[in-house]
Write a structure and sequence with these properties.
The protein has about 120 residues and is an all-alpha fold. The chain folds into 2 domains: about 60 residues, no CATH class; about 50 residues, no CATH class. The chain has 5 helices and no strands. Helix 3 packs parallel to helix 5. The chain starts with 11 loop residues before the first helix and ends with a helix.
Amino acid sequence: MVDKAPEGISGAERNKWALNPENKKPNALDMAFPKLKAECLKNAAQSLGKIFGRDMNRKIVDDYRPFKLQLPESTMKKIENDIRLGVDEFEIRQGIEQLGELVSEQQKQHIFGLLNNRNNE
């Protein structure tokens, strides 16, 4: 590490000035040692990491299955009453799609079963 070259020097003379040992900072190696040590450790960890299991179990993929909530009993009763009263089937199906993840598969099957029974009557 060197200090900034003087203003009047350019070209080859600037290079000679930078290479001259008298212009070097006396504690340059002491100042650069911590960064050098960190880079060496980082390189060693990357090089030797695979040997010691850095990427162990990377092939295993976890399947995320979120917990599904169920509609409250009062809401289910309201939907069942709407089906019995003859509310338009399209509105009921659209409402269930809007509820999306809040309706469990069992509840969907129950509601669609009631709709199918109503259509068969």
